[in-house]
Amino acid sequence: MADEKLNAEEQKKLLEIARKTIIDKLKKGEIEKEPASSQGLEKPCGAFVSLHKLGQLRGCIGTFTSPRPLVSTVQEMAVSSSQQDPRFPPVQAEEMKDIDIEISVLSPLREIEDVNEIEVGRHGIYITKGFNSGVLLPQVATEYGWDRDTFLDHTCMKAGLAPGTWREEGVKIEIFDAQVFGEKE
């Protein structure tokens, strides 16, 4: 994502590709590789694909970086979020009518020394301590009305760590920006 954001047409195209990719995987067992139809969709960067069924999370998987074009990354994450999120059973074809897709296109991770650098609603958080790691996208804090400390606590819990662990030595906190767009806007 770096500095340039996707325009409305590119966002719409990515959402269409994500939906088509999931449906093709469910119905045909395979996907058709989509070409990058614009410079924005050609750029290599990280992305998360979130699925919501009737307003509830139904799958979310992503990657912080990718050497492939964004369009390919979104296709891969769309299939993964629908079939491989360990928190949920695989999505079935008949569910797709009730599922809304949201895509988060990520900036590169940036390690921070001071949690005051975190802007709730703008930044996502990636916390690592030892073998534990967890990530929450920027929109999660906004959706739940969390302040910075609560956002950090919940990211720790996502990593399998106790709330407040972010205050300890040996914890790595990285932040990122995300351009977030979805079918339900």
Quick description:
It is built from 5 helices and 7 strands. With 185 residues, it is of the alpha+beta class.
Could you characterize the architecture of this molecule?
By secondary structure, the chain is of the alpha+beta class. The protein folds into two domains: 100 residues, Hypothetical protein ph0010, domain 1 (Glycoprotein, Type 4 Pilin, 2-Layer Sandwich); 69 residues, Hypothetical protein ph0010, domain 2 (Dna Ligase, domain 1, 2-Layer Sandwich). The chain contains five helices and seven strands. Strands 1, 2, 3, 4, 5, 6 and 7 form a seven-stranded antiparallel sheet that branches. α1 crosses α3. The longest helix has 21 residues. The radius of gyration is 16 Å and the shape is globular. The two termini are 20 Å apart.
Coarse structural class: alpha+beta
Number of strands: 7
Number of helices: 5
CATH architecture of the largest domain: 2-Layer Sandwich
Radius of gyration using CA atoms only:
16 Å
Uncertain spans, ≥5 residues at pLDDT below 50? none
Identify the CATH class of the largest domain: Alpha Beta
Broad shape: globular
Write the layout of secondary structure elements.
Layout: H1 8-28, H2 39-42, E1 47-53, E2 56-63, H3 70-83, E3 99-106, E4 110-111, E5 123-129, E6 132-136, H4 138-144, H5 148-158, E7 172-182
Antiparallel strand pairs: 1-2, 1-3, 3-7, 4-7, 5-6, 5-7
